[in-house]
Amino acid sequence: GKGGSLLFDDLPPASSSDTASSATEQVSSAGSHGKGEKRKSLEEEEKNGREELVEKKVCKGSVSILRLKGYVAERKGEREDMQDAHVILNDITEECQPLPSQITRVSYFAVFDGHGGVRASKFAARNLHQNLIKKFPKGEVASVEKTVKRCLLDTFKHTDEEFLKQASSQKPAWKDGSTATCVLAVDNTLYIANLGDSR
């Protein structure tokens, strides 16, 4: 109603010719100063951007690493047995040595949603992080992000191949399967990988 203030009461009406003319005046007055000022302001922005980048690089070393602590809860549901598995490794930094110099902490958390039996989810819970540690970048690397992503992909592929080899060698062959969601914390960056319909 008219008694209360509306959200846009302080704005001029859209059809106001005064607004259009004042906007035109602002544009023409800015244009009269020439291109030199625009270039100057762009140069200042670029300079400020470079300073910010330098500051970020300097500050990065002093940024504290967030402390992570994993917890889990599980519920069997309607099935006769629990087919899911999980792994919580709050700190696998020592196991991943020698690390690239810019990495100071590595943590691993994973949930495996088994189906058709417990063997695939249990196998993944026992082996995925072991394979990850073996494949984790050792020493200096050009790009930590690219290397860690490649490591995760290779780890999932290798673990899947290992399980399929074992499952197909059984008589009768195992039909167990599992989805996976894995969180790898490298310093303060989380790399999240999933397989199947787990997210």
CATH topology of the largest domain: Phosphatase 2c, domain 1
Count of DSSP E strands?
A: 4
**Overall radius of gyration:** 28 Å
Mean pLDDT: 80
Give the strand order of the largest sheet, numbering strands 1, 2, ... along the chain: 1-2-3-4
Give me the secondary-structure category.
Answer: alpha+beta
* Main sheet summary: 4 strands, antiparallel
What overall form do the CA principal axes indicate?
globular
CATH superfamily of the largest domain: PPM-type phosphatase domain
What's the tally of helices? Answer: 4
Strand residue percentage: 15-25%
Region (Disordered): 1-51
Organism: Atlantisia rogersi
Keywords: Hydrolase, Metal-binding, Protein phosphatase
Domain PPM-type phosphatase: 69-199
Give an overview of the whole structure.
Residues 1-51 are annotated as: Disordered. With 199 residues, the protein is α+β, with helices and mostly antiparallel strands. The protein is built from four helices and four strands, in the order ααββααββ. The protein has a four-stranded antiparallel β-sheet, with helices on one face. β3 (177-186) and β4 (189-195) form a beta hairpin.
List keywords for this structure.
199 residues; alpha+beta; Phosphatase 2c, domain 1; 2 domains; four-stranded antiparallel β-sheet
